[in-house]
Design goal:
Layout (H helix, E strand, L loop, with lengths): L1 H15 L1 H30 L10 E8 L9 E2 H8 L5 E15 L5 E8 L2 H6 L5 E2 L12 E6 H8 L9 E4 L2 E9 L12 E4 L12 E8 L5 H11 L8 H7 L5 E7 H5 L4 H32 L1 H9 L4 H37 L14 H28 L4 H4 L12 H36 L22
Parallel strand pairs: 4-9, 6-8
Antiparallel strand pairs: 1-10, 1-11, 2-10, 3-4, 3-7, 3-10, 5-8, 6-9, 7-8
Length: 473
C-alpha cells in the first residue's frame, strides 16, 4: 500500500509541475529513442548471426598474384579448379557474379539487378526456397535456362502467384523458366538482387581466364586461416595463363588466397562507423540523464521544507527516498515508452534513409533483444537520476527548514554538497559536449576536404556511361 500511495502522490506531483515533467520526459524520450535506434542497427548489422543456416561457416575468398589483386572480380577459374578437387579444409566452393539485365514479363520491361551463380552457392549458404526449388548442377549447362525470383520481385511483378513456377520470362531477350522464389531475408549477395540465374565456371583452357566472386563452406572445426593456407598451397598447381594473368593482375607472381568470415566481409565498410556513432549517441544519452538528474537535484533542494515536514510526521529516510524513486520511475516509464515509439518511427524511416547498398538492413528490427535493452537502459537512467538526489538528501539538514523564518531562501546555507554535485555534473556534461563537438567538427572538415579534393580532371566536362553485355549473346 505504501508503494501505491507513493506512486499516486508522484503522479499528482508531476501533473502539478507540467513544465518539469514535459522537459524531463522529452529529454528521456529523445535519449532512449536515439540510443535504441542506433543499438538496433549496430546489433542487427554487426552482432546478429547471418540469416543463412550455414552463414557462420562460410568464408569469402580473394586471390592475388604476386601480392596484386585482379583489376575486377576477386577469384579466377584456374584457382577455383586447382583447389576444388583437392580440398580438405572446405566442403564446397561456389562462384557468382552480378549483372543488370532487362526483364520482360508480366508488365512493362524493367531493368533489374541479378546474380549469376553456380548451383553450389545455395548449398554452401544452406538456403531454402519459399516456393519451388533451387538450381541443380545440370542447370549450369542446360538450355533454355532457368531462374529464381526474389520474394520482392515475385510479389511486385507476379502478384505473389503460388503457381509461378514453370512460367517463362525473358532476360535481355533470352528465355528463362522460373523454378523457385527465394525468401527476402535470404537474398545474396545483397538485398538489391532481384533474381538468380545459373552460372558455369569456365574450364581452364589455354590462356583464357575468367573472374568472379567466390565463397567456400568450411569443414566443422576449420578456421579461415587454415582454409587460406590450403588455398595458397594449391595455388602452386594453378594453370599458367601467361600474358592474360599479367594483364589482369599486373603480375604473374605466386598465387595467394585469403579467406574472411562472410559476416566480417559483408560488414567491413560499416563496422567502425556504426561503433563510433553508437558511442557518440551513448555519450549524448549520458548527458541527457545528467540533465534530468540535475533537474531532480534542484527539485529536491527546493522541496527541503516538504521533506522536513514528512520527516517530522514520522516518515523515515527510506520512505522519503522511496518517494523520489517513485517519481523517477514514473518519469522513466513515460520517457522510455515515448522513446520506444520514437525508435519505432525512426525504424520505419531507415529503408529510405540508408543507402541502397547498406548491408543487412533486413536484420535491423525492434525485436525482444532491442526492446529489452531499451527497458534496461530506461531503468538504469531511473536509478541514476533517483539515487543522486537521494544521496544528496542524506547530506541535507532537514530540521533547519522548520526553524527558518522564511526570510532566506529555502535551504540557504545548507546545500553546499548539492551545489558541489551539480557543478561536477555540469563540468562532465560540458566535457562530453566538447568531445562530441570536436569530433563533429573534424568529420565535417574531412568531408569538405573530400568534396574539394583535386581529382586531376575537370568533372564538369565529362559524362559517365555504362554498357552491360547482353545475356543472350
Amino acid at each position: 500500500m505504501t508503494s501505491i500511495h507513493d506512486l499516486r502522490y508522484a503522479i499528482r506531483l508531476l501533473i502539478r509541475q507540467p513544465r518539469f515533467t514535459m522537459l524531463a520526459a522529452l529529454t528521456m524520450a529523445l535519449g532512449i529513442g536515439a540510443t535504441t535506434t542506433l543499438f538496433s542497427v549496430t546489433y542487427g548489422v554487426l552482432v546478429k548471426p547471418l540469416p543463412w543456416p550455414n552463414g557462420d561457416r562460410v568464408a569469402l575468398l580473394k586471390e592475388t598474384r604476386g601480392g596484386n589483386p585482379p583489376r575486377f572480380g576477386s577469384f579466377t577459374n584456374t584457382a577455383y579448379f586447382a583447389w576444388q578437387d583437392h580440398a580438405s579444409t572446405i566442403e564446397e566452393l561456389a562462384a557468382w557474379s552480378q549483372a543488370t539485365v532487362t526483364l520482360s514479363a508480366a508488365g512493362e520491361p524493367e531493368r533489374i539487378r541479378i546474380a549469376q551463380n553456380t548451383a553450389s552457392l545455395f548449398r554452401v549458404l544452406g538456403a531454402r526456397p519459399l516456393v519451388g526449388s533451387l538450381f541443380e548442377d545440370k542447370d549450369e549447362t542446360e538450355k533454355p535456362s532457368v531462374m529464381i525470383l526474389s520474394e520482392s520481385l515475385w510479389r511486385q511483378r507476379f502478384g505473389g502467384d503460388p503457381h509461378v513456377v514453370g512460367r517463362i520470362v525473358r532476360l535481355d531477350g533470352a528465355s528463362h523458366t522460373i523454378v523457385g522464389v527465394m525468401p527476402e531475408e535470404l537474398a545474396f549477395p545483397d538485398r538489391r538482387t532481384r533474381a538468380w540465374v545459373p552460372y558455369r565456371v569456365h574450364p581452364v583452357d589455354g590462356n583464357y581466364l575468367s573472374l568472379f566472386s567466390a565463397v567456400a563452406k568450411l569443414r566443422p572445426g576449420t578456421t579461415v586461416v587454415q582454409a587460406a593456407a590450403e588455398g595458397t598451397a594449391r595455388g602452386e598447381f594453378v594453370a599458367d595463363t601467361g600474358m592474360t594473368t599479367t594483364a589482369i593482375f599486373g603480375s604473374n607472381g605466386p598465387v595467394s588466397i585469403s579467406a574472411v568470415p562472410l559476416k566480417d566481409a559483408i560488414t567491413a565498410d560499416v563496422g567502425r562507423p556504426l561503433t563510433v556513432l553508437l558511442a557518440a549517441v551513448l555519450l549524448l544519452f549520458i548527458t541527457a540523464v545528467a540533465n534530468i538528474a540535475g533537474l531532480q537535484l534542484a527539485r529536491v533542494t527546493g522541496r527541503r521544507r516538504e521533506m522536513a515536514i514528512r520527516a517530522a510526521l514520522g516518515a523515515g529516510q527510506a520512505r522519503v527516498v522511496g518517494q523520489l524513486v517513485a517519481e523517477s520511475l514514473l518519469l522513466g516509464l513515460v520517457g522510455g515508452t515515448a522513446g520506444v515509439f520514437l525508435a519505432w518511427w525512426l525504424h520505419r524511416l531507415l529503408p529510405s534513409v540508408l543507402p541502397n547498398d547498406f548491408p543487412r538492413v533486413d536484420g535491423v528490427v525492434l525485436d525482444a533483444t532491442v526492446i529489452g535493452v531499451a527497458v534496461v537502459v530506461s531503468l538504469g537512467a531511473c536509478v541514476v537520476f533517483s539515487v543522486i538526489p537521494a544521496l544528496q538528501l542524506r547530506r541535507l539538514n532537514l530540521t533547519a527548514p522548520l526553524s527558518e523564518d522564511g526570510s532566506a531562501p529555502v535551504g540557504a546555507g545548507s546545500a553546499t554538497a548539492v551545489g558541489r554535485t551539480r557543478r561536477v555534473m555540469m563540468a562532465g556534461q560540458v566535457a562530453i559536449a566538447c568531445v562530441l563537438l570536436v569530433g563533429a567538427s573534424l568529420l565535417g572538415r574531412s568531408f569538405l576536404l573530400l568534396l574539394n579534393a583535386d581529382r586531376g580532371f575537370n568533372p564538369v566536362v565529362f559524362v559517365e556511361a555504362a554498357a552491360t553485355p547482353s545475356m543472350s549473346r
